Amino acid sequence: MTPAEQKQFKNAFNALKKEYSFSFSFEGGVRGCQRSLPVLLSKDYADLAFEDFSEITLLFFTCTDGSLPEHRQVLGALLSLGLKRSAIGEIFHYQNGTVVAVKERVASYIESDLKRAGRSTLSFKKDFVLPEDFVLHYEKEELKISVASLRLDCVVSALCRLSREEGGGYVKKGLASVNFEEALRPDKKLFPGDTLSLRGYGRYELSEDEPGETRSGRLSVTVYKYK
Length: 227
Prior knowledge:
Alpha-Beta Plaits; Structural Genomics Hypothetical 15.5 Kd Protein In mrcA-pckA Intergenic Region, Chain A; 2 domains; 5 helices; globular; alpha+beta
């Protein structure tokens, strides 16, 4: 589940609290992750740990040429196997390789059939386990953009190097998400801290700081691109 889907789940579950004696947590295989699955436990088993019932498996692979494939290359390779996006959790670099959190039922299939990411040949490590104190911190690249306003189409145009008209058309096609929810209105207003997922261009996060102003009266915005 994305953070937006997790929010919907929480709202629906909280509405049932009076009728059912269950508690829940979200598990993504690694602390600090954004994508995760809900785990429900009866309150009769309150002394058990949620992570013991998680359906998440962590796969670790290296590239035989020593490279580290980009997130989109790994995700594209996984989707080309016929997997749904909902079966794939976080993808991140660790030491000299890449970790992928996946649903347990597809782990063996991925290990046997995923041979390449981009142009690189992959080698999986058996029985991989992260250190207990590991917390996922997302790698981000700082960017500066200049926009007329914090409308979605303006920011998309600046990040994707499109014209204002092309940026608006991109949004209307359903290719942009704001805070993990599909956004179809080019005039949608963005706010500091918002997360943008732009299909084909990556994921971005607007700085928590208020935009500055350039000499020409435009807004100077700091944006972080997820690597």
